[in-house]
């Protein structure tokens, strides 16, 4: 368990209004925050931040999260020694998720594992997943496009 305090903001600890205006929070006032190792791209963990936690993260250079179960702030590493030193912070395209690139010292997961995503791998081979059209509307290599009822495939001109 890491350092915690009650959830409250004061004027000198408020998130920059230009950031706060863009942020899309859930009904509980929180946004998911993904911690990623800055130099390898390894996804380490998912935590939750409110405006105060994000402000602390941006201003201290250390990740601060809101614990939904304990209803308290915690600074990653204050008691565990497994620090997250902030390298960059970004919002996703919808401004509803924060990506914090960090230099992780020690384990990121509360279980003692380097990452929270090591233990329960659901798939490892992309070929094992069903083929689906890509965002460009084309089908993945080696996969056949689904037929659309009532349409015919135009003939391909000979070259």
From TrEMBL:
Major site of localization recorded for this protein? cytoplasm
Cofactor(s), names only, from the UniProt record: Zn(2+); Mg(2+)
**Pathway involvement?**
Amino-acid biosynthesis; L-histidine biosynthesis; L-histidine from 5-phospho-alpha-D-ribose 1-diphosphate: step 2/9; Amino-acid biosynthesis; L-histidine biosynthesis; L-histidine from 5-phospho-alpha-D-ribose 1-diphosphate: step 3/9
- Biological process according to GO: L-histidine biosynthetic process
Enzyme nomenclature, EC number: 3.5.4.19
Chain positions covered by the region annotation Disordered: 127-159
**GO CC terms of this entry:** cytoplasm
* Ranges for domain Phosphoribosyl-AMP cyclohydrolase: 45-117
For the ligand (Mg(2+)), the binding residues are: 92, 94, 96
Annotated keywords: Amino-acid biosynthesis, Cytoplasm, Histidine biosynthesis, Hydrolase, Magnesium, Metal-binding, Zinc
Q: How is the cofactor bound?
A: Binds 1 zinc ion per subunit.
Q: Which reaction does it catalyse?
A: 1-(5-phospho-beta-D-ribosyl)-ATP + H2O = 1-(5-phospho-beta-D-ribosyl)-5'-AMP + diphosphate + H(+); 1-(5-phospho-beta-D-ribosyl)-5'-AMP + H2O = 1-(5-phospho-beta-D-ribosyl)-5-[(5-phospho-beta-D-ribosylamino)methylideneamino]imidazole-4-carboxamide
What is the protein's quaternary organization?
Homodimer.
| Family of the protein in this entry | Belongs to the PRA-CH family.
**What is its biological role?**
Catalyzes the hydrolysis of the adenine ring of phosphoribosyl-AMP.
**In its UniProt entry, what is this protein called?**
Phosphoribosyl-AMP cyclohydrolase
Naturally occurring in which organism (per UniProt): Streptomyces piniterrae
- Gene for this chain: hisI
């Amino acid at each position: 368990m890491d350092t915690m305090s009650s959830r409250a903001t004061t004027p000198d600890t408020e998130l920059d209004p230009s950031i706060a205006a863009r942020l899309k929070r859930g009904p509980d006032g929180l946004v998911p925050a993904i911690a990623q190792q800055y130099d390898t791209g390894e996804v380490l963990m998912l935590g939750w931040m409110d405006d105060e936690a994000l402000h602390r993260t941006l201003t201290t250079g250390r990740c601060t999260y809101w614990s939904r179960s304990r209803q308290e702030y915690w600074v990653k590493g204050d008691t565990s020694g497994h620090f997250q030193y902030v390298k960059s912070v970004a919002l996703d395209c919808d401004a509803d998720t924060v990506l914090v690139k960090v230099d992780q010292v020690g384990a990121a997961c509360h279980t003692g594992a380097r990452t929270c995503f090591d233990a329960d791998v659901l798939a490892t081979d992309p070929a094992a997943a069903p083929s689906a059209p890509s965002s460009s509307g084309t089908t993945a290599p080696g996969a056949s496009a689904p037929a659309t009822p009532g349409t015919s495939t135009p003939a391909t001109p000979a070259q």
